[in-house]
Write a structure and sequence with these properties.
With 103 residues, the chain is mostly helical. Helix content is 65%, strand content 0%. Helix 2 crosses helix 3, helix 4 packs across helix 5 and helix 6 packs antiparallel against helix 7.
Length: 103
């Protein structure tokens, strides 16, 4: 699943004629970290996926589905998972705890 996510991010980046360096800068990530995500070596957090989505100008939900955080059958637009993951007032640990309780 991670390789699929990384491949999707790489494909979106390339379709926008962006280099890895440019996307990393726009997403406020290090180039090596983004490269590892694209190659499926690192699993990005929901917050990192949001940063990448913003830089690519797509909805974070598209990446959440690819990452397996949200199921496409959840009615992605209004799911509890998406609401929790997009809440900027929560830390990553709080988000994960809430998702664990919910599931």
């Amino acid at each position: 699943m991670r390789e699929e996510l990384g491949g999707r991010i790489a494909a979106l980046r390339k379709s926008r004629s962006m280099t890895l360096v440019v996307l990393a800068a726009k997403a406020k990530l290090s180039q090596p970290f983004l490269s590892q995500i694209e190659r499926g070596l690192r699993k990005p957090s929901a917050e990192v996926l949001q940063q990448i989505a913003r830089a690519l100008r797509i909805s974070a939900e598209q990446l959440y589905v690819r990452a397996g955080i949200v199921s496409p059958d959840d009615g992605v637009g209004g799911s509890v998972e998406v609401a929790v993951l997009s809440d900027t007032g929560l830390t990553e640990r709080q988000k994960q705890s809430l998702l664990d309780v919910y599931s």
